[in-house]
Amino acid sequence: MRSVYLDTNATTPVDPRVLEAMLPYFRENFGNAASRNHRFGWVAEEGVDKAREQVAKVINANSKEIIWTSGSTEGNNTAILGVAHMYAEKGKHIITCKIEHKAVIDPCKFLETEGYEVTWLDPDDKGRVSVEQVREAMRDDTILVSLMFANNEIGTIHPIAEIGALCKQRDVIFHTDATQAFGKVPIDVEAMGIDLLSMSAHKIYGPKGVGALYVRRKKPRVRLQPIIHGGGHERGMRSGTLNVPGIVGCGAAAAVAMKDMPTESVKIAGLRDRLWAGLSEHLTDIHRNGDPQHSLPNTLNVSFLYVEGESLMMGFGDIAVSSGSACTSASLEPSYVLKGLGMGDDIAHSSIRFSLGRFTTKEEIDYTIEQVVKTVNHLREMSPLYEMAQQGIDLSKVEWQRH
Amino acid sequence: MAYSDKIVDHFQHPRNVGSMDTNLKSVGTGIVGAPECGDVMKLQIKVDDEDRIVDAKFKTFGCGSAIASSSLATEWVKGRTLDEALQLKNTDIVTELALPPVKIHCSVLAEDAVRAAIADVKKKKEQVDAPANAAVVG
Predict the structure, then answer these.
(1) Which domain, by its residues, includes B105?
(2) Residue B80 lies in a domain
């Protein structure tokens, strides 16, 4: 069996249809989309405009509301810093959550150093924040709520529409980092009251280094202070010559994702359920993390008690996944997302994220089940924790020799 | 980060996995690390009357490098006297397994486990010897 790639929440391969669409823009259509007085520029601009429409359509937005970025990290920074700096006179309070991506957490922490106040909401044990929590956190000086659409590690989806409605009612701008959700689950910025939304092309079978930020133009018209200043591209919100082939690829990827979403999401969810069913049939002492009721179709996060995540990944070496363990980092701290759910560090160290995708097959899932079961059993045989648990020792009562 | 061939070998074919009866006077047990830190090593040694290590076993919860470090440590201490085994340095493990800097703590843990097992068996021996001495005095 060839290598199995179950890490699509990290990145995806470029879809052949996307690559086809991009290629002419490296060659004959190489123009600068900002060149207004010759054909090369017009052709490039047409490609960019088409892509803008393709991205807008996925979220029921107007193409004029799409700003090109280098990806979601830039989109999140532009949105959060841009709103904070533009609306500072109105207030300096921001609401977000402890298990956001670092590309949201770090700009918010940066704003704290500038005198802004951030409320860091605690999610429930499945990774969800409730609309009541957001309501309680709101103050007269709240200017922004930033909550991810779906979590990258556990796939949990927040009650976005309810939170959006609350933000509208309270006249607070609502940003959502939709990096993992865009093109995988239905998103409607109008129905959900979303004012700002970030996405990345490479999570949806497009190229790396390009993405989009949706910026609402009506009710309300959201204004951002740019973080990149220059030639005034993208309505002045993001200067810099446009990455035309990348943008065309982003648009093509969005169009394919939108067209295939109804069938693809069902197929992928079926494979994910097959994976979970297979693992739970053959293994004891495993937990599914996240919220199966409100989840991305492709993400399965599992804790395999008494074995450490990195050794698991090493054991089934030709299957690419991610681990909640951070044994490679100097800090030895496991995933802050899993810890944010109230999970103990020991269980977080034992967690694996499987993220399936468009090209995942049933055979790959069956092979994965077989390999994971074999590896977990192999590692449990040499796990002192498994041995102690089998002897009925309560591991939480043991006095460990921390190092 | 790719693993060295030796780490992979110890990981796939760990030497001396197992457990010995902790109640035996000739068996020393060292358990170091904590589940929250992502590593727990249990290393056991069995000594003969001349304080020579005749057998060693381990069980490890941890990454591949932690498993390989403890597997290698059991191989190395076998046949050595307790004093010789105390000479085992974590840096020797680092060199042998070509551990990258972020994995050096795995070798430290293995050294600690060996030392803890030696200390345990020495303590047991003293307890065994103590009543005999007392009898002589008595």
Answers:
(1) 5-125
(2) yes
Residue B106 among the catalytic residues:
yes
pLDDT (average), residues A15-34: 97
Question: Does residue B137 lie in a domain region?
Answer: no
**Interface mutation vs chain B, best among A306, A311, A352, most B CBs within 10 Å:** A311
CATH class of the A16-257 domain in this structure: alpha beta
Say which CATH number the domain at B95 has: 3.90.1010.10
Residue to test with chain B: of A316, A325, A327, most B Cβ within 10 A = A327
| Chain B positions in Cβ-Cβ contact with residue A310 (cut-off 8 Å) | 38, 63-64
Which residues of chain A lie closer than 8 angstroms to B21, CB-CB?
none
Tens of pLDDT, residues A116-168: 999 999 999 999 999 999 999 999 999 999 999 999 999 999 999 999 999 99
Residues 63-122 of B with CB under 8 A from A: 63-64, 66-67, 102-103, 105, 108-109, 112, 116
Tell me the pTM: 0.93
Does domain A261-397 match CATH 3.90.1150.10?
yes
Please enumerate, as own/partner, the contacts of A10-15 that have beta carbons within 8 Å and a separation of 24 or more.
A10/A322, A10/A355, A11/A202, A11/A203, A11/A208, A12/A202, A12/A203, A12/A204, A12/A205, A12/A357, A12/A358, A13/A205, A13/A359, A14/A205, A14/A206, A14/A207, A14/A249, A14/A253, A15/A205, A15/A206, A15/A252, A15/A253, A15/A256, A15/A358
Number of domains chain B contains: 1
ipTM of the complex: 0.90
Query: Which residue in B7, B32, B43, B106 is the catalytic one?
Result: B106
The CATH 3.90.1150.10 domain(s) of chain A lie at: 261-397
Which listed residue (A97, A108, A167, A327) is catalytic? A327
